[in-house]
Amino acid sequence: MSSKSDTNAGLSLSDRVGLLVKDLRTEVPDCVATGVIDMSTGMLMSVETVDSHPPEVLDMLAAATLELFQGRNVTMIENIFKERRGIVSDRHYFQEILVNSENLAHLFMRLDSADDVVAVVVCRKTVNVGMLFAQARRVLKDHGRL
Question: In the chain, what are the helix, strand and coil shares in percent, each to the nearest 5?
Fold first, then answer.
């Protein structure tokens, strides 16, 4: 059986990211928005939502994601955790972060294949959190390397 990463191998990076976002949007339960952020540039690579949002709001999502994963204090905490646990690695310590707002659940996940890329999945707060994690992880795994 071939995986989506095998099928998508001949596509451009932009097309592969677009398909990842589309699959997250359709396969994660109660999903209202998905996006992929390049942490090295702070740019939103692709987004798909059920509502339209002004570009400045989407840019703020990218900036907030960058701060959430690589802000000065977060990086300091990661380094302390790695040091105390004897971990010697350039890989980031925090891989997934779940943020619950008034009406939504926001899941931020680093891609295994690209530590500097984060997928964001936004669902209604009524989502089963276990299914949110399971489906989002499955989709990321199915897409393999970007």
Answer: 45, 25, 30
